[in-house]
Each structure stands twice: as C-alpha cells, then as structure tokens.
Design goal:
heterotrimer, A mainly alpha (315), B mainly alpha (83), C mainly alpha (97), B: mainly alpha, flat, C: 97 residues, 0% strand
Chain lengths: 315, 83, 97
C-alpha cells in the first residue's frame, strides 16, 4: 500500500474512533451509548489489525465488542425505569471542573509517556522471540501469556472469579443461589430459535478451532472461551435452555476447576523445576496445553455467568 | 493485485464508516444498531481483502469471530429493547 | 488462465465495493427504519458475496477457499436472522418519538 494511502487510512480510523467515543460519552440515553460502545469495539478491532496485533484484534472482537456490549445493553435495559431521573440530574460546576482536570492530567501523562519514549522504544520482543523454541510454541503471544508471564494470567483468572463472586453477592436474600436473569420464553421467536440452533454448533466448532490453533497462530483459550460464552448466552436468550441455579455444585466446580489446575501445575513446578509456575525441561508444551484445556470451560462459564448477572429467581 | 485489494479494503471501510453518521443521527436505537451491523459487515469484507492481499490466514479468523459476535450483539440489543 | 482469474477478481471485488457504497448511501438517505434495513441487506448480501466470490480464485488451497465460504455463509445466516429481528424491533417500536 502506498504510504500516503496508509497514512490517510490511519488518520481516518483514529479520527473515527475519537468521534464515536466522544459521541458515546456525550449521548444522554444509556441504550444508545451501549450501541455506540459496540461500534467503538468494532472500530478498535480494525485498529488492532492495523497495528499488526491479530490476537488482540480477536480478543477485542470477542470480548470488547461482543460480550461487554451485551453486558452494557443488559444493564441499559435494567436501568430503564430510572432513565428519566438520571437524565434530569446535572452535576455541579465544581464537580465538572475536578473531573475535567483529572481526565486532562491522566491523558497528558499517558501522551507524554508515549511521546517521550526513546527511539527505538525499549522492548523485550527479541529476547522473547529467542526463548520461544524452549516452550515448544509457535505463537509468541501465547508463550508470553502462559509461560513467560504465566503468573499474570493466573492472577487474571482469579480476578475473574472474584468479579463473579461480586456479581453473585448482589442477589437479594430470597433468591440467593437461584437462577440468574429473567426466563426467556421458549420458542417465542422462530427467527431467534433458528439463529440459536444454527449458530451455536457453528460457534462451538469455531471456538475449538481458535483454542487449537492458539499454540502456533493468533487465537487461544480466552477468545475461544468468549465465543463459547456468547453461544451459551445466545441459546439461553432464545429460550432453548434455562440458566442453571448458581448454587449447583457442578457449576461451581466447572468455574473453579481452571484456576485450581493452574495453581496445581504451579506448585508442581516449584516441586520439580525449582520455582512456582516453572515448567520442567521438555514438559513445557504438554503442561501449557493442559492449563489451557482446564481454563477453557472455566473461563467460558465465568464469562457467561458474568453476563447473566446476579440470581434473580428461584427454581 | 495486492495493491488493488488493499485499496478496495480501505474503500469498503471508508464507505461503512460514513454509514456511522446514522449512529450519530439515529433517530431510533434500532438505526444505531443497524449502523454497527453495517460496520461489522464492512469490517469482515475488509479483513477478507486484507488476508488475500497479504497472504496471512489470521485476518480470516478475526473475520469469523466478527461475524459470530456482531450477530450476537444485535440479538442482545433486540432482547434488551423488548424487555 | 491466471489473467482471466485476475480479471474475475478485479470485477467481482469492484462490484462488491460498489454495492457496499450503494447500500451505505441508501442507509443514509432512506426515510424510514425498515427501508434503511432494506438497503443494509444489499450491502450484506451482494457486497460481501461478490467480494468473497472475487477472492475465491486467490485462496491458497481448498482449505482456505472453504474457510472463505464458511465465513460468508456465517455472515449470511447471521445477517438474515438479525435483519428479521431488527425489523420486528423497529416495527414494534413504532415511529421515533
């Protein structure tokens, strides 16, 4: 591509992201802002592809635009009774000034840090690429996530669990441990039923494809888990299955199994290879695959339950 | 040929980006969701063109994920609008 | 042979891009939610379909070609169903307040 065309395209994309983001923040209706957020996520996917980061683009499309968009649209639906009151309130001048000052200083800090980076910017990419063959993986992103910085991934999984606990704790006492979300009438909409019945098997196959190729190509367990969660929510919204009560033991076992296996392999590493989450010589790839396989159902269940929300009704 | 495909990708993205005007104007939220859907389809087309131009298989995977999840977002919108 | 395939690619991709343009123009200019949806489906079906058709000759092998067709089929099925759902939502919402 000619440099001028690429530059123009990048400028246009950046301007578009700014316009959509500004509009999303300024619009007064919550549901409209949620739709704006979905569009913003789609634009960011293109931005990530432009920055040669297909793994992040995949995650943005799956989680940033899809799952988070659904979460926000559901929240907007829940907030509809208080919409008029929320639109009527106006923050005072002092509050607006303080918020503007905070936002401006954070933006200036980030911009200054990026603009003052030495050229070429400091990076560990060369060392990571050099150490890649030891892990047996072909995708550097997966190697960083599950081998070089696996402690961060473990902590993120635990954070997801804590977020789920937080969401469940919002349940009123009388429906504690009940089923999340309203009951969607079965077969209410033939079109939605058709879509769920066709899309769900396809989505499962695509998710497995992403999970499997994550070792050597852009993909991995997180994107696969997001797609599985999306398919589960789709089938539930079509009324084909009901959400399980959160007090069910099998559900809680599935959610917890991933981090537990991760921790177990970590302690195994400290017993056999000298450090927590170190992999013994030659066993790196099988252990990484085992961690990913254990995390996949846990992450999918956790994401689906986060979107479903706190328990809202009993059996 | 690769140049032509990349130009086509830029053209498609620019076109559906103009469609985002409907996002700003509305007037109903359904129109805004349609603008997001159009952006998703344009993104899929641009990614397929990018994959053919550069020869990498990665953008096709991103296009597949986009197709699945754009539909999912629209379903979520319709469900939340009817609650 | 490759020249004919290249011509096919150029013609198909150009027509696909044209339908994207036509669909977007219709989307912006039509007066009503349902008619805008009608314009949207032209971009969805014809735009993406022609582009996919133009890219098929350039796919590196049967597997990649099947993947392209799979993406297109997915977009078709999802787009068709979502169009129906959005149309129903637009109709029950009625004219904007």
């Amino acid at each position: 591509m000619t440099d001028a065309l690429a530059l123009a395209f990048d400028f246009g994309l950046a301007a578009l992201v700014l316009i959509v983001a500004t509009w999303t923040l300024l619009t007064r209706e919550t549901a409209a802002a949620a739709v704006g957020f979905v569009a913003y996520g789609l634009l960011l996917t293109l931005v990530w592809m432009r920055l040669a980061a297909p793994d992040v683009a995949l995650t943005e499309a799956a989680i940033g635009s899809g799952v988070t968009g659904t979460l926000l649209l559901g929240a907007a639906a829940r907030l509809r009774p208080t919409e008029a009151a929320a639109e009527a309130e106006q923050p005072g001048k002092a509050m607006r000034f303080v918020v503007a000052l905070l936002c401006a200083s954070v933006s200036a800090g980030i911009a200054g840090t990026i603009l003052m980076l030495p050229d070429p910017a400091p990076t560990l990419a060369a060392e990571a690429a050099a150490a890649l063959p030891e892990t047996g993986l072909g995708n550097a992103v997966t190697a960083v996530l599950l081998s070089f910085r696996s402690i961060d991934t473990l902590l993120e999984t635990v954070v997801l669990l804590l977020a789920l606990l937080g969401v469940w704790s919002l349940a009123p006492d009388r429906v504690w441990g009940g089923r999340p979300g309203p009951r969607d009438g079965a077969y209410q909409s033939e079109v939605l039923t058709f879509l769920a019945q066709i899309l769900a098997p396809f989505g499962i196959v695509v998710a497995m494809h992403f999970f499997w190729i994550g070792a050597d190509a852009p993909g991995g367990k997180f994107q696969a888990a997001a797609i599985l969660a999306a398919m589960w929510i789709l089938v539930q919204r079509a009324g084909l299955v009901d959400s399980p009560p959160v007090s069910r033991r099998w559900l809680r076992l599935v959610v917890v199994a991933g981090p537990v296996v991760f921790l177990a392999i970590g302690f195994l590493g400290s017993a056999t290879a000298g450090a927590f989450l170190a992999y013994p010589e030659g066993y790196a790839k099988p252990l990484i695959v085992a961690i990913e396989a254990a995390l996949l159902p846990s992450l999918a269940a956790a994401l689906a339950l986060l979107v479903a929300g706190p328990p809202a009704r009993t059996e | 040929m690769a140049e032509f495909l990349l130009c086509a990708a830029v053209f498609v993205v620019a076109t559906v980006a103009v469609g985002l005007l409907r996002l700003l104007r509305g007037p109903a939220n359904t129109d805004r969701m349609m603008a997001a859907q159009l952006l998703g389809t344009g993104g899929i087309a641009a990614l397929l063109l990018l994959a053919a131009a550069t020869g990498e298989p990665a953008p096709v995977d991103v296009a597949m994920a986009l197709a699945l999840l754009a539909a999912f977002s629209s379903v979520a919108f319709v469900k939340s609008a009817s609650r | 042979m490759t020249l004919a395939l290249d011509v096919l690619t150029v013609v198909a991709v150009s027509s696909g891009a044209f339908f994207f343009l036509a669909g977007t123009v219709g989307f912006l200019r039509f007066p009503d939610s349902l008619s805008r949806l009608h314009a949207l489906t032209k971009a969805d079906n014809l735009g993406l379909g022609l582009i996919m058709l133009g890219l098929l000759p350039r796919a590196g092998g049967v597997g990649s070609a099947l993947k392209l067709i799979a993406v297109w089929l997915l977009a078709q099925v999802a787009g068709a169903a979502v169009t129906q759902l959005l149309a129903r939502a637009a109709r029950t919402a009625g004219p904007p307040a």
